Every structure is written in C-alpha cells, then in structure tokens.
Amino acid sequence: NAHRALGRDKQAIEAYRQAITHNPADPWPHHSLGDIYHSQQQYTPAETFLKQALERYPEGPEYNDERAIDWDMLGDVYRATKRPKEAIAAYQQANQLDPTLARAQYSLGDVFHSQNQLEDAKAAYQQAIILEPDRPETYHELGLVHQSLGEYEAAQARLKDAVAYQPDKSAQAASWNSLGDVYRTQKAYKQAIEAYRQATQLDPQFAQPWNSLGEIYEIQQQTAGVVDAYQQAIALDPSFAQPYHNLGELYRRQGEYDQAITYYYQAQERYPADPAYNATRAIDWVGLGNIYRDRQQNDQAIAAYQQAIQFNPDEGWPYHNLGLIYKNRGAYNQAIDMYRQAIERFADDADKAVAWNNLGNVYSTLGQMDEAIAAYQQAIDLNGEYAVPWHSLGLVRAGLNQNEDAAEAYRQSLKRNPDYLPAWSNLGDAYRALNRSEDAISAYEQAIQLDPDYVWPYHNLGILHEERADYESAITAYRQAIERHVLSEQKAILCDRLGNVYRIRSEPQPAIESYKQATTFDPRYAAPWYSLGNVYAMQGQDREATEAYNRAIELNPADPWPYHNLGLLYERRQAYEQAARMYQQAIMRHASDNDRAISWDSLGNIYNDLGRYPQAIEAFREATRLNPRFPLPWNSLGDVYSAVGDYKQAVEAYRQAIDLDPDYAWPYNNLGLVYEKMREYDQAITIYQQVLERHTDNHDRAVSYNSLGDVYVALRREKDAILAYEHAIQLDPDYIWPYNSLGNIYEKRGQHDYAYALYQQATRRHRQRPLAF
Question: 77, 490, 568, 581: which has the highest count of C-beta atoms within 10 A?
Fold first, then answer.
C-alpha cells in the first residue's frame, strides 16, 4: 500500500504477490492487484485477481461495500473487453450489494446506452443522479439518451444541467455541442448555431462544433461560411475525419470532382479502425463511385461501390448504383440482381420506389413490358407522390401504342410534379400521336417555358409543325432544336428534316445547304446524302444526284431507296439496263411488300420501255400481288396491253386502277385513249369528261382537254377540238401537246404563220420544262 501511495506500482505489485504467497486466502492483496491492473487497463490479470478477491471475502454484509467495488471494476473489465451482458450483470451485482454506489449506476447506464437499450439507460442515469446529483457527466449522458428517444425538451434540460454543474470549460463545450445537436434535430437552427458558437468560445480548440456549424450552414443553404467552418474543424483537429467527409460531399454536389475525390480519400485515411465508422466509410465510397460514374470511369465506379458494400453490406445505394452501371453496359441480368439487392436493403419506401422504377427501366429495355409495368406500379404504390414512375409507365404505354393510357400516365406524373420537363415533352408526343395537335403544342410550349434550353420540345414541335404543313413554324422549331442539341448526330437528323421542309416548299438551295450541314455534323449519316440526291434529281443535276445516291449507298448499303431513285435517274437518261439493275437491288432490300410493289412497278416500266412486254406484264402483276390496293401497276398494265393491242385487257386494267383510286387521273385518260384506238369515241368523250368533272388539278384537266380535242379531231369536229385545246393551254400553259395539236389544225387550214407560232411555243416550253422526278 505504501509503494502504491508513492506511485510505485511495480514494487506494489511485487509486494502484493509476496503477501499472497504468505497468505493465499487473504482477499485484500487480490483486491489491490485487481485494482492496479484495472487502472493499467491490463484486463486479463485484473479479471483474474478481482474474481479471486470476491471468492475470498468473508461471508456477511460487512464486506458488501468491498464486494460492490470489485464487481464495479469487474464490470469495467467486461465492458472494455466487449462483453456487455457480463458487464451489465456485474454492475447490477455491485448496485445490489451497495445501492448507494453511484459510479456503478452511471457505468450501467453507459453499457445500456451502448447497446441501444435506451429506457434502461435512462433509468440507470436517473438513479445515478439521485445518488450523486452534482456529477455533470451523468446529466450529459442522460441528455443524449433523451435525444435518442426523441424527448427533446428533457434532453435540452439535462444538457443545460450538465453545463451548470460542470466546472471544466472543455466539458461545458462538449455539452453545448450536444445541445446544438438537439436543436438541429428539432430544426431550431438559430438556437443550434448559438449553441455551437458557445462551444467554440468555451473551448477554442474543439473541432466538433465547427464541423457542426458547417453542416447547419449547408442545411440552411448558406453558401458563405460552409467551407470555412469545415476548414476550421480540420485546422483544429487534422485527424478528425468528418469535416473531410463533409467537404467531399459538398464538392461532389457542386461538381468540383477533383477536390471531392481528394477529401473523400483524406476522410478514409482518418477514420478510426472501429466498425462504428464503417457506415460513414461506405457513404464516402458511394460518393466516390458517383463521381467516377458521372465521369464515365465505370471500372473505378464499380470498384468504389464494391468497397462501400464491403464496409456496409446493409446499405442499399451501392447496389442500386451498380445497377445503373450494369444497365448502361447492357449487363441486364446483373442490373436486375443489383436493383433487387437494393430493394431488400432499403428501409425507406421512397428509396425502394426509386429502385423499383429503375428495375422497370431494365425490363422495358429488354422488351419485358408486363414486368416493367408491374415494377413501375410497385414504385407508385410505395411512393404515391413520386412522379418518375408515372412518367416511365407513360413511356411503356406509348411504346405499346396505348397513347390514351400514356397521356393519362404523363398527366399523373405532372400532377405530382408540375415542373417535370420530360413529362410535358412526352405528353406532347402522346397528344401528337392522338392527333390532338393543339394540346400537343400547349404541352411542348409548357416544357419550353419551364426550361427554354431543353431541346426535345423544340425537336418534336418541329416534327408536329411539319406534319401539319406549317412549314414556317417547323423551320423555326428545327433551327432552335439544332442550336440546343449537344449530340452532333441529333443535329444531323434535324438538318436533314429541315432540308426536307425546304424541299417541300420548293426552295432547293436552302434544302441543299441544310442537307450538306447534316453531312458535316455526322459524316456517317446516310439520310442527308439520299435527300441531297432527291433535290439534285429534281433540279435536273443528274451527275450530282448520282454521286449523292452512291454516297448514301456506301454509308448504308441496306437502304433500298437510294438504289430505287438511282433507277429513276437512269430511266430518265434512258439507261434502261442500269435502271433495271438498280430496281432489282431495291427489291432485294425492301422490308415491306408495299415498298417492293413500288420497285416492281418501276421495273415493269423499264421492261415496257425496252419492248419486253411479257417481262413487263410479269413485273406489274407481281406489284399487284404484293399490294392489291396499289393502282399504279394496274394503270401500267393497261399501258402494256394497249401497246400490244390487247384493248380488252387494257380496259380491264385501267378500270381496276380507277376502282382503286377514283381520284387518280391517268387511268381515265389512258382508258380514253384505248377507246380512241377502238374507235369508240363516245366512250372516250365520256371518260375525258369524267376527269374534267372529278379532278381539280390543272395539269390533269389540261391533259384531258387535249385528249378530248384529239377525239373531236378524229370525229371531224374541228371547232370543238380548237376549244378543247385552248382550254388545255389556259389550264396549263407549259403543257406542250395542245400547242402542237392546234398547230396541226391551223397548218391543215393553210394558216401557216399561226401554226408556226404554236409550234414555236411548244418547242420553247419543251426546252424550258424541267424533267419530272
């Protein structure tokens, strides 16, 4: 005892061991050795000697106080060696032996608190205060327990008591810091800031309140002071991990990824080697994974998320975010597994709803629409205010051509989030599919009002205006979309569409410029080359058209239409064999029977021009088989039968064309010509008059008047013939044949000057007239 009083523990231990050698039954040297080893945190010998002391005390209540002290120390040993059940039993034994031992009650409260047995902890601390009302630490810990139980008024009162009883300023600062935490939990941010500042004043070297101040400033969205507060915490305690973590989170949200990465890794280096910090470590790894994912450094992102899972296997977000990466990589089964793992771990229904929505997206990508719809419905059921799954459901319904259901889903999404841009844009698409043009325009305009830089409403407005033949508005919308698109591929698509609008408006030069701009934005995009070929062909620039079509074929050899239109070019140049090869190439590539019918009809025309009538008939018949509702090959069949003198078959073919399309003028005129050849002039006149009655196109009417004039000439009704030819010229001054026919009449009459003038008109218009394409 003398050695110990002088602080000479080594000599004291030797003396106590000598005492035990002389009298092993004496409890006191065992007690004293246990006490020394307890104070030195040598828990194994402390446990041994304290138990030996307890075995040696004489029976009787007069030694209960000593027993209580040893049980209390033994409780400390169990607690330090992570044996909480044994610690609780030891402290309870001490309290039973000496109900006035406040320290044992306090320690019992600490163990209950560490085991989250909060009501038991509260009772123990309250008993400790009764036994020792002046001990400030008990009020502090009881305040923390009240806070964990949500008893905030009581927590405030006890922490204020701790401050009042605590003479040490550093300890006062700790209680003020905890009081700030209580106020923050209650969202009483002003009082929280005052409490944290009080802590910093009482202990200027205390880092924790500075970190807490930074967190409060972030909650209040105060840009000023946040970084300074965290940096002050770091300056005071460079080993304190939390402000590094918070700076990492802050810089990640601000998109300053390099700084965020630096602070995340610094936080990882500073966390104590304690499983209690694993959850925060996992948060940092998730943040790092998110940064790498945003930077499309997916291998690093996957590694980071896997680290997060290693530290906290029960956290849902790393699984969820791995699902995002696997989906984008096309590893759909892995994505599904990750989302389901996340759903199992999420405690919050709102988080589960996010995972169900993204799981639905995977099923949608896989074309498993029933599973996708079920997943979206799960998300909706879990979080009725979540707008995104309603929008996702709308996309699936639109993909299934269930446009009414799609529109309703988008409206439900907007009901929950009126500022959700994609829902407004896609609602416009649904209305466009339902032919509700005005509603579609309103939806697109609402999206534009919410975000004038959001590209898709302009993009889709352009398509809608083009479909409505409102070409001026289409041009404006397309140009605005082209300015806003980030991807050059999308710019190319819209430049091609813009060129198409100009072509429809008979503005070839702006069309050509738009198509060329499309090829600049995306040199591998075939469509604008095909479109360029069409414009050049319409302009009669056959060489440029041929080059453009060949470029389109080079870029996309599977597209049939450049071959088909090259065939039209060769046909126009009377290069019939080359034209036939192009049509045959198109036929091999067409995906639909209707498209194949068009190219078969054109191939039949080539055979007809070459006088290969059996092959022409076979081609036209194949076209009618592929598309029985296509009138053009029936008209062409009539032409072949007429050419070979099979007028009966010709009449049947022309009438079939007329039945299929009563507004198609050419079979009427051709039928009239057959009746002329058959000298059935009355029938011919009737047919031509039907054209004049039914059709409003000036050129079609001019052709019929010219044919009618020819019949009148054959019937020697010269006056009626002249009137018919003059009507033809009046309707279409660029149509050459009525000039020629009138010239014939006046030439036969001997009116050579008049005839000569008419022939000149015909010749001049023939030279000026562009070839049709």
Answer: 77
